[in-house]
Amino acid sequence: MFKDNNRTIKWTELQKHSTNTDCWILIDGIVYNVTTYLAEHPGGDDILLKYGGKDATQRFKSIGHTDYAISIRDQRKVGMIEQGEQPTEYQEWIKKQEVLQNDITWDELEKHNKQDSLWMVIDEYVYDLTKYQNQHPGGSKILITNSGKDASQQFQEAKHPESVKELRKEFIVGKIKGVNPKHIKNQGHIHYFYIIGIIVIIGGYYLYN
Q1: Per-residue pLDDT tens over the stretch 92-107
Q2: What does the sequence similarity comment in the record state about its family (predicted)?
């Protein structure tokens, strides 16, 4: 069946293709479907996913791609982006995506552990709940207690309805970067006592045999 790769793609359609199972990018007004190329991309799939549903023209031009790389790209043409300005809906989506890609370190998170600056991590995302604490049905105390920390377990145990999970998206300020240093420290303590325990057992064995 003939595939029309010259069709017009709306901005709002482009934004729907921004996942690792369905990834389109825009370069010089042309939309490409790079989904099947993610695993093969020499620069890794992260950079392609970062621009999924977005305009990657400047990024693409800043890197010296070979003619072969360009030919691979051209084989994945889907169509041409629509003429005119980006619709408001798309612009708002872009702003939200920029926030989601904002990396926040654990050190930065820990600084926001007060009532007037209340951040916490839930499932890898960082939320600024400063303005929400007085509206929280469970009271502000539980939020303040978990401020500057990973509250994923507490959130899951509270069994919040889907409506709350949707509401919290409004307060995302970024994504936590790296591994929680406290987890590493705790694991270090566990390994330490594990080794000590083995030494004691071995020592006891040779002492009484």
Answers
A1: 999 999 998 889 999 9
A2: Belongs to the cytochrome b5 family.
